[in-house]
Amino acid sequence: MRLPHPPRKYLPRGARPSHAGGFSLIVTVTLLLLLSLIAIGLLSLSSTVVRSSRRDGSMAEARANARLGLLLALGELQRTMGPDTRISANGDILSSDGSVANGMRHVTGVWNAWDPNPSQIGSYQSHKKGAPIDDPVTRGGATLTRPDGGFHRWLVSSMSLQAASEVEFARKGSQGELVTLVPPAGQSRDTLVSAARVPLFNNKRQTKGQFAWVVLDEGQKAATNSAAPENPSFSALQTLATQSELAWRRVSEWSALDNLSAQQRQKLVTRSTLSLGGVGKVNESIHDLTPYSATVMSNTARGGLRTDLSLLLGSEELPPDYAHRHLYSDSDTPLMEAPDRSRHRYSWPSPDPQWQILHKFHRIPIDTFAGNRENPRLRFSMTANAARSSIPHRPNGFTGMRSDLKTAESYHNSLKLSPVISKAQFIFSLTFARGSGMANSNKNGFWDRDGGRAQSRWKAQALMIIDPVITLWNPYDVPIDVSSFRIFLYRIPVAFQFNTSNPRIETPSEYTEYVMAIAPGANVNRNFAYPLNIVPEQGQRSIELLPGEHRVFSAQDYQSSWAIGMGHTEGKAVTMAPGWYPPGSGGRFAAKVGGISTENLYRGTGGQTTAFFKNKRGVRFPTAGLPVEANDQIRISVRPSSSEIGKFVTAGNRAVDFYLRYGVDVPDSRIRGGNEQQDIPDFGAIELDYGDRIGDILRSYEAGTELPVFPIERDDILTAPMAGGHTSLNRNRQVRGTIKKKPFLVATLHLKSLVNDEFRSKFPAKAWIHNNPTAVYASAGSAGQMEDLAAQQYEFSYQPLQGDWLNGGFPEITGDRNQGYGGPSPGVEDGRIFAPFSSLPRSAPTSLAQFRHAPLNSSGKQPLQAQVIANSFAHPLLEPDQVIDHSNAYLDHSFLANQTLFDQVFFSGANTSDLYSRFLQGKTPLMQSRLQSLAKGTKVAEDFADLPTPYEEAAAHVLFNGAFNVNSTSHHAWQAFLTAMNHESIPQLESLNQGGLGTLSNSGKDSFTSRYQIPIEESLGDNLDPFGGGDERPAWTGHRRLTDQEIERLATNLVEEVKLRGPFQSLGEFINRRAEDSALANEGALQAAIDKSGLNDVPLRDTGLEIFADSGGQSGFANPNAAEGSSLVGTPGYLTQGDLLHSLAPALTARSDTFRIRSYGASTNKRGQIMAEAWCEAVVQRFPNYLDETNLPGDHPSRPDTNPLSEINERFGRRFRIISFRWLAAEELLAS
Question: Which residue ranges traverse the bilayer (predicted)?
């Protein structure tokens, strides 16, 4: 029987009746297969996990090795670049004299800075590029060691530390297997940087991994953080010397940066964000462009922090430790003592100037100027009261002031801001009138008709008249108001011979030496002073001299030599007023023009009379005068005269051929006749003494050939009195005729002419750079300085006239202001009405280059270098390898000033410590907007104003953003950096005849340069010059606009100069010429690049003189090559490195403090196979704090008031910190 099915409710879901047999086997097999698959999967997963774990371990190991490399690199960077006295340069700097290994061009090298003792400069031919540490340099049998050695190492991994410590490592390259740390990019593919893989071993000497690293210098690149947002609280005038922005458009891939504001560029904090800012080809620009570069304001040359000149010089008085400090020696003991001079000579200071001069120059806007900042004025006054004079009285032995150190320092440290005599002309003429000498002649019967005393109306005596005509020049770019200007005239080097056709006169064969302006009677001493007093016109309180203006002044109250020289009560000074009114000109003073007259035409060297006349009885009588009558003919011959009689105590008891003093305006009662007036103070002098060379320098003129013969007509003889005011009378109503005078000679003293005209220099020179024309003391020849006349400021000459006042040869004058000519020439054809030489600050300076106008060398002591600071021209008086010549008491002022200052100081733009304190707290901006406070929110910032020496501490709390290392060889970086003045709105002195301040629009952000603190209109006032034209006189322009093409050429040539001369081991070395016997000794790198780029080709096409080694006056030069070239070098349109540095200097440095470290790490197996690789990058920044913070940032051995450095800090210097870090993807290391 069949068993019934169980009830459905008992069957499992899905179960079938028992008749489906064999199903269990199938299920079992299926389950076994599934379990097998799971087991296999688990085994596979386990293997994958193991392999992944191994890979993670290898990558971790690789990253650890990369971090190890980074830390080793940071350690080497701290060791080599932590101390202040280190400089950095890339391997490419060696490429001028040999190849650099592939991958080494952009590797950072480290050298010691070099600050040689000035007395040792030039003592060897050239310091070797990369001389190893303590490697001596031998020259001329003497072995010398450069202080602190030379090269340290290349900051790149190497299999041999010794190899990386050799300069040649950059040429040979790393040995062994290399790894790419910066890939090649672009067409040139020269971005490549590679480093040696350094293996790591375990304790069993088995390979454990690898690392490699390199340090890249960010300071040699153009930095996008170079400009802070402009602050409206400062005027364009105040910030003109602070470089506003780089010229990004000059590099096409960077041009988008010009479209970003300064605030936006501040946000470009990484290289990846540069592309977001629109920068193209970022990979190709890795060695040219950076988003961050900052530097500590430390003294690269000597160590320690820089001094803030804004705080130091902004104070009313210099602190005691600077009150008597000399600039070049940087101590109270000068580099060279003051030269000895004879007992009564005016003293010279030490050629080593004092800091007082910089202090006074810095404070000109506060202490010196009258008027407002935009339209300042100078006030010039010289009175007997030294305290009320604009220039202190000059110390001398006669008055006893020379022994008064305080008085001497007061004068020598003064700025001596004075008008300059650019030209002094003395016109000699004859007139015929009844004079005082007639009585002596007549009593001996010369004019007797019958032996009685009756006189013929037409009989008279000859008088020689000298018309002094002075051209005063304002050499500054601000107006000067002159209350009075007194000159004591002593001597003119000319002798005359007067012959007459009258047979009754016996004239001598010898010449009468007019050792004075005239021959004053029989007095043999002949050292009388003839005062010329330049005064304002009637109704005016002062004489206005506009910026650069030349104005002419002439004598307008005719005086006799007797009245002036012998001390009569009348006319103790010849009054000189604006204008020149020759007889016949119709001018309102024409009848009175003529300063000094004499009747003494025949005097011997002993004062005796040398001529004779016979009366009608044939009796022979001596005479000093020349009696004349109608129909006589007068013949005149002229020759130069160098007299040894009439010695001057103020000139060291010596005779001087030409001599005048800039006198002090004193009451007439103090001017005693027949006296040198040596007890009357002065503030300068001009001395020219030719000695036995005078016949070669000045020529003679014979009567009847070059000089006229004067026939005397009856109308030529003046009688007394004449109506109409055509004569002036002395107190005895004796006639001193002027209207009939006949000119026969003009003698001219003038500053050197730069052109080939009637005033062509016999001894041509680069006068605006080598012959400082603003020195108020000029001394040449045996009475002073024996240097060749090419080294002097002034020249003297004379030329014959033909008796006609309106036929040339006379003072050229133009315009209602009685303006004269100067600059390139004192003549009308090539001269200029306006020619500013020096520029005075209208606001506190913010750049060292602004001090190139400071009168560091105004004493008149040779060499007469001008535009001292920031320029680098060699002076021909010094050997190429000399900066000090003790035997002649010469100093190379430019070299020594640059070496001292450029590494030692900076400008914050804060004139008080309170203002700087508010800046540190983040409350107040500074004019130098690139300074970044590191002390915000600290007590240091709050307490800064209470520090005793804040100028020494200011650098401890700031970084300077966008600093640029002068050792850079990046063409693109230089191209962007060389921007000069590129503000959108540039202040400009628009019209020199009005002195107004306007604006030079610069919407295209072009680069402008100017010789002046603020640019002057391009024509430099030539619109008032009838013979000029702005486009025709490119050497005389108020500013230059540099095109992008010119900047590109300049960048190219500057990179070549950097490679040729570098690495520069201080900023001063970059600014200066090389003191060695080579072509590099003529000028510095920047000036050489300017010249090679042709930036001065157009100015040099202006009218000038070409100077050769055999030109006149060059024979005595120690370095005639320095004198060769165009006379136009140094003129306003000639671009100098000082002009460019005006705005570039604050951002320059010789070292970098921001670096990028790239490091590589690899993990390897036991067989050395690479298992994993990693790359990382860190940006590190040096800060003012020392590594060992037991020392304060301001501590340094150069400051004895601070703590000595710990051993750690002496060795490792200031702390580097990592400011950013990232891992690099492998794709970033691929070539692009």
Answer: 21-45
Which CA distances in Å does 256 have to 89, 540, 727, 1047?
29, 59, 78, 19
pTM over 0.70: yes
The order of strands in the sheet holding 108-112 is 86-90, 108-112, 151-154
Residue 411 has pLDDT above 60, yes or no: yes
Query: Which DSSP category does 827 fall into?
Result: S
DSSP state of 1069: H
What per-residue confidence (pLDDT) applies to 1014? Answer: 83
SS (H, E, C) 112-172: ECCCCCHHHCCCCCCCCCCCECCCCEEECCEEECCCCCCEEEECECCCCHHHHCCCCHHHH
Per-residue 3-state assignment (H helix, E strand, C coil) for 213-276: EEEEEHHHCEECCCCCCCCCCCCCCCCCCCCCCCCHHHCHHHHHHHHCCHHHHHCCCCHHHHHH
Give me the amino acid identity at 641. S
CA-CA distance, 434 to 424, in Å (whole number)? 30
Residues in a beta bridge with 624: none
Query: Coil, strand or helix: which one is 693?
Result: helix
The pLDDT of 922-949, averaged and rounded, is: 91
User: What is the distance between the alpha carbons of residues 627 and 315, in angstroms, rounded to a whole number?
Assistant: 69
Model pLDDT for residues 1030-1083, shown as the tens digit of each residue: 446 788 988 888 888 999 999 999 999 999 998 999 999 999 999 988 889 999
Report how far apart, in Å, the C-alpha atoms of 888 and of each of 897, 976, 1081, 1225 are: 19, 44, 20, 67
Rounded-to-integer distance, Cα 1058 and Cα 1065, Å: 12
In this prediction, residues 477-483 reach a mean pLDDT of 92
Residue 893: predicted pLDDT: 96
Query: Rounded to 10 degrees, what is the CA torsion of 383, 384, 390, 395?
Result: 140
Q: Which two tokens stand for residue 75?
A: 């350690």
Which amino acid belongs to residue 698? L
For tokens 């490429």, name the residue.
95
Instruction: List b or e across 146-179, with b for residues whose CB sees 16 or more CB atoms inside 10 angstroms.
Output: bebbbbbbbbbbbeeeebbbbbebbbebbeeebb
**pLDDT tens profile 199-223:** 998 877 788 899 999 999 999 999 9
Per DSSP, the three-state class of 305 is: strand
Neighbours of 1166 (CB within 10 A): 10
pLDDT band at 321 (very low <50, low <70, confident <90, very high): very high
The owner of tokens 């309180």 is 541
Residue 146 in tokens: 């450069």
Tell me which of 430 and 1162 has the higher pLDDT.
1162
Flag whether pLDDT at 567 surpasses 60: no
One-letter amino acid for residue 816 of the chain: D
Per-residue CA distances from 525 to 398, 645, 647 (Å): 18, 7, 7
| 515/1199 Cα distance (integer angstroms) | 58
Cα dihedral 512→513→517→522 (10° resolution): -70
What pLDDT is recorded for position 322?
95
CA distance 1116 to 689: 17
Asked if residue 1172 lies in contact with residue 61, where contact means CB atoms within 8 angstroms, the answer is yes
Cα 651 to the chain's mean position, in Å?
A: 32
The pLDDT of residue 124: 37
Q: Examine the pLDDT at 312 and tell me if it is beyond 90.
A: yes
What end-to-end distance do the CA atoms of the chain give, in Å? 93
657/641 Cα distance (integer angstroms): 7
Quote the CA–CA distance of 217 and 343 in Å, as a whole number: 59
Q: Are 518 and 599 in contact (CB under 8 A)?
A: no
Question: d(Cα 634, Cα 636) in Å, to the nearest integer?
Answer: 7
Apex CA 924: angle with CA 922 and CA 929, to 5°? 90
